[in-house]
Every structure is written in C-alpha cells, then in structure tokens.
Amino acid sequence: MNIINIVILLALGLFAVYSLAMGIKERYEKISMALPENRFDQPTERLWGMLGNVLGQKRILRERGAGIMHVFIFWGISLFAIGLVLFILEGLFPVIKFNNQLFYLLIDIFGIFGFLGMAIATWRRYVAKVPRLDVGPWEEEKMIIALTVAIILMIVSYFIGSAANAVASGTEARYEMAPVTGMLVNAFAGMTAAGVLYQVFYWLAILPALGLLVFFRYSPLVHPLAAPINIYFRNLQPRGGQIKKINLGDEEDEDEDEDEDEDDEMNFGVSKITDYTWKQLLDCYACAECGRCQDNCPANLSGKPLSPKKVILTLREHLPNKGDNKEDLPEVAGEILSDDIIWACTNCYACQEHCPQLNEHINKLIDLRRHLVLDVSEFPSEAQLAFTNMERNSNPWGVGWTTRADWADGLDVPLMEDNSDVEYLFYVGCAGAFDERIKNVAKSMVKILKAAGITFAILGSEEKCCGDSARRLGNEYLFKSLVDENIETMNGYGVKKIITCCPHCFNSLKNEYPQFGGNYEVIHHTQLISKLLQDKKINLQGDGERLKLTYHDSCMLGRYNNEYDAPRNIISKIPGASLTEMERNRNSAFCCGAGGGRMWLEEHGTRINVMRTEQALQTQPDLIAVNCPFCLTMIEDGLKDQGQEENVQAKDIAELVVRYMQ
Question: What are the pLDDT digits (tens) for 473-530?
C-alpha cells in the first residue's frame, strides 16, 4: 500500500472520528440542558448490571426470535470488527502477517452471524412487517436502509477482498478452515486480476466502516453507543419506589434539595422538556425503536393513543438545542404530548419490564401529571372527585372516615388504640373498609389470621388511604399529607410489621413510605398465607370437587415486587384445584386497567379489564383467582360485560383459602 493510500485513509479516518466526537458532543449538550440527577452511586452494581445486559443480552433474549437476531448482530459485528481491523492494517502495512487458521475461521463465523442478523432484521421490517416496528415514510426509513446496506456491504467486501488478497499474495492456506473466505479463495484461484479485485473491495470494506462513524452524527439511531451508558445509569431503587420525591416547599424538603436550582423549586412537575433530568432525556437516545414496550402496553393494545415507544421518540424529536431559551420551548403536556396520552397510562410497568435498554417511561408521564395537577390545575374531573374524597374522608370512595372499621362489626377485631402489643398491624386499605364486595376479602383474612393464631390489630378510623392513587395521578401534595398522617399514627403505636391484602397499599408502604420516614416490614396477604400453609399453621381440606382455575397476576405484586410464586403455591395446595395459566402471565401479565389511578377515571373505547377477562375466559375456567381488590373489581365487571358472571366466579386468594380451610 503506497503512501497516498495511507494519507487518504488517515484523512478519512480523522474525519470519521471527528464526526463521531461531534455527534457525542452535540447530544451531550442537549441532555446537559436538563436537570441534574444523581445516578453515580453503587458503581460496582451498575457495572455488573450493564455487562449482564449488554454482553449477556439478558433482556434482549427474553424474546427468543428477535433476541437471537440481535445477538447475531451484536456479537457477530462486534467480533467480526477485529478481523476487519486486521484486514485494514495488513493493507496499509504489508509486513503485517497473521496466518492463524482458527482466527480466520472465527472471523468468518462472526461475519456470517452479522450478515444473517442484518438480513433477518431487514426481513422482519420490510417483508414480515412486524407491526411494532412502525415502518414509516421514505424520509424516516432511508437512514435505516443506509445503515443496513453499509453493514452488509462491509461484511461482504471483507470476504471478497480477503479472498482476492490471498490469491494475489499467495496466502491461501490461512483460510483453509474459513467457510466463506475459503470458498471464495477456491473460486478466485488462478485469477490474474485478483490484486485489482482486492484493491476495489478493500476500499468497499473501509468506506462503510468509516461511514458508520460519520452516520452517528446525523442519525437518530445511536442506541449502540447510548444504550450501554443508559443501562449503567439505570434506576437502582426498588421498582415500586422509583417515583422521585419532590420539593413541596416544606422545610424538611428544602434541606434535601439544596442541589436543585432555586428557579425550579416552585415547578412541581415537568412543564418544558428541560424540566426532565439528564437521565430521562438520555433514554431518548438509548431507545432502539424495537417496540417491545408498546407490544406489552395495555393502553396501546386497547386502542388508546398512548405508545411508550412513541412517547420516547416524540420527546427525542423535541430535544432542545444548545442556546435555546427555555421560555421559548413548547409545553410538553398539550403541545408535545396530548393530555389523552398522559392520562392513559396504567403504570403497569410492562413497558419498562420489557425494554432492553431499561428506559424509564412511567415517571416521564407521572412528572407531566404532577405539572397538570399541581402547577396548572388541569386534569380529568373524575380525578378531582377522587382527590376531594381523599382529602375529606381519606378514601377515594368518599365514605365517611368514621365508619372505616364498620366492616369488622361482629368479628371481634382488635383496634391498635385498645392494644398495640400485637405482631402485625392489619392495614385494611380503603377497598377492604368501604367497598361492599372487597369487605369479604378483609373478613376472610381475619378468619385466616385467627385460625393461625397470629396476633394483629387494625387502626380503624385512624387509618388513612395509603395515597397510591393520589401519587400516580400526580397529586404529590395529597399523597404526602396522607403518608405523613399514616406514619405519625403507625410510629406512635410502634408498628414494625404490616399485613395488607392490597398490592397497591403493599407497594406504597413497603417501597415509598421509607422516603418519608416510615420503615416497616410489609407483607402481602398471599405471602403470609403461603408461609402459613408451608408451616402447617392452617390446613385445607376438599370435598372431592374439581375446580379449574386461572390466575391473574396483579401488576403491583408481580412486576413491581417480583412476587409470582406465593399465590401459585397457595393454589397448588387447594384440594381439587388445577391451574391453567393465561397466555400473558407472570412478568408478561396483562393489566386489569385500574392502576396508575385509572380506577377513578373514565375509560373510553375498548376496556382493558374486558380484554383481560377475555384472556382469562380463553382458559375455560370455573374461577379466576386474583390477589388485588382493584383487579377483583375489574375482573368481575369484565365477567358481567361478557355475560359470564353466572358461569365463572372471580375470587381473591384469601376467599379461596377460607372456603377450604378446616
């Protein structure tokens, strides 16, 4: 290779590296305009998690077909690049000779993987037309096509160029084990123009490789670089405790938020895109547009305007430029994202559960709800009714707070004010106290606790709503006031352990109350019942009846708190019961539609709870078992909609246990 070629390659290489550096700099400038956030703690855990998800492709491989395709692309191209670098260096400096046959065998194999991965990706997008990939107009697709063509051309040119060089230089032996290059060597044997062919394909391999670095600056498809960084800076808080506590102007909050800009202290949510944190905006670059989030989003699948993928991409389109005046930026709520999108989310966590890049969709929408509720007072009228009921009577139903213990009349249930020397506080929750149907779940739990000899008491009229719906609807002020009152009461009684039948209460008490000084050992009733059965503190006995069950995983107990086994362990011990799983189960379970405060909002169009009920009915069950009062309500409503309320029952796990308890 003569000096001219070296100079040309050096010039092109410097331009490519410069373009890459500028692309990184320009994107950094965009996200640096956002608010600060500390994601620099626990570096070891962050590193290992990143390696597992990037090198191990853990999240990617949850979906086998697309996962294997991506592994082919990731590992194929990454390791093939080693051979490509050697190919380039040998062309520049002929004195470099590397003749290990095993090496070239592996490079060929990884090159084949990369080629197949890109071919499968192209087939999925343009032939199979997988809906979630959302193939767009030419203006949007030309970048993807250019990227695909460049990678395939780079791989093919390496194979042809290597084979031609081997024939021209007499180094055929190094490729004897290489399946593709070796085959081409045999095909080119004796070719007099092999040297010319090598020169042509040498540059056809180099130019796409360098072009990919230039491509990075001008393309929105930058997730290969951004995703590993994004995964490293993932949220390490418990899933159920990842909603950020905000400064509401209290003295105790002011001390904690000293690092925040004073100009932002009175902005309770996200108004402009720069009100997000840098990590929230980094998500926009990490997104691979794979669509797994929207493929598992109940709002999207039921025809609502919300697509978690499109939320991320729409925000990416509106990222600020260096020097933009914040006041001139559009409002995120209403101008960038419609109100219907913001209020459609059920907070089910399915989008984040299945996102390979660990993007955080939910808090982006909750921050917008906070702005609409606390900053501008624009939110659905049904939410206002729920807020008013929680403010006046500490429950969304609006039933008088003094009647909170009436459900327990005649059951001899002790109150904490009479005797707080008990093992557990039974936190009944609003549904168990005020909803006529759910009261039976609370009563069933009392029977189980008494049968097991567990000492417990309730707060009665001193108990307030846990605040879950208030927080997820954006009313952080109301949430905090409920939390503060509950913590003051529970700490006053020296509460250490809490049982609750509601996964929403369970999650708030377990994962969110510690933000405000409430630290308790919280157990969901299915977890306790499972242990009681295991320890033989209670026993179940059947009458020979066969019962065909299906089980609905609630989002808060399942995806948020990773509890899938306890309810199933209980069902396995019910005499005569057989469990048939729905197609969407465990971490892929479909939401009932009531989470994220949606229990209190009107739903238009196809109802999520009806879709879930239809999924349950496909298993032809006698009974649908649940673990959540919201889910029970929504499934029973779904059965009525389907005209199946006389044929199929819906029961909480506790009700089932009491039916068979000796």
Answer: 999 999 999 999 999 999 999 999 999 999 999 999 999 999 999 999 999 999 999 9
| Number of domains the chain is built from | 4
Query: With a threshold of 0.85, does the pTM exceed it?
Result: yes
Nearest to 222 by CA among 40, 30, 14: 30
Give exposure, 388-415, as e/b (b: 16+ Cβ within 10 Å): ebbbebbbbbbbebeebbebbeeeebbe
pLDDT of residue 1: 52
Which residues does residue 464 pair with via DSSP β-bridges, in sequence order?
none
Same domain, 528 and 547: no
Enter the DSSP assignment of 260.
S
11 belongs to a structural domain: yes
pLDDT the model gives residue 136: 76
* Residues 558, 515 share a domain: no
List the alpha helices (DSSP H) in 127-193.
Answer: 138-169, 179-188
Helices assigned H by DSSP within 452-560: 468-472, 476-492, 503-507, 525-534
Please indicate, yes or no, whether residues 561 and 624 belong to a single structural domain of this protein: yes
503, 599 Cβ separation under 8 angstroms: no
Q: Is residue 505 part of a domain?
A: yes
CATH number (domain holding residue 602): 3.40.50.10700
* Residue 553 · residue 565 · CB < 8 Å: no
**What token pair was written down for 64?**
């086998």
347 by DSSP, 3-state: which?
coil
Residue where the block lists tokens 């080629």:
115
Same domain (yes/no): 514, 549: no
Amino acid at 621: P
Task: Give 47: exposed, middle or buried? Use CB within 10 Å, 0-12, 13-18, 19+.
Answer: exposed
Does 654 reside within a domain? yes
Contact 222, 23 (CB under 8 A): yes
> Same domain for 472 and 526?
yes
Q: Domain range spanning residue 93?
A: 3-31+63-219
**What are the structure tokens assigned to 301, written together?**
């699948």
DSSP string, 49-88: HHHHHHTS-TTGGGSHHHHHHHHHHHHHHHHHHHHHHHHH
Residues 311 and 418 in one domain: no
Residue range 207-262, pLDDT digits in tens: 999 999 999 998 888 999 999 999 999 999 999 999 999 988 765 555 544 444 44
Q: Which of 342, 375, 408 is the last residue of a domain?
A: 375
Question: Would the pLDDT of 141 be above 90?
Answer: no
**Is the pLDDT higher at 494 or at 190?**
494
- CATH code of the domain in which 360 resides: 1.10.1060.10
Q: How many CB atoms lie within 10 A of CB 623?
A: 18
Which DSSP category does 522 fall into?
A: E
- Token pair of 493, please? 């009684």
- Report the residue count for the chain: 662
User: Are 482 and 584 contained in the same domain?
Assistant: no
What one-character DSSP code corresponds to residue 413? P
Q: Which of 504, 532, 560 is where one domain is finished? A: 532
Q: Are residues 603 and 644 in the same domain?
A: yes
Tell me if 168 sits within 8 A of 195, measured CB to CB: yes
- If pLDDT is split at 50, 70 and 90, which confidence band does 264 have? very low
- The per-residue pLDDT for 266 is 65
Q: Do the domain assignments include residue 45?
A: no
Judged by average pLDDT, the poorest of 2-11, 272-281, 483-492 is: 2-11
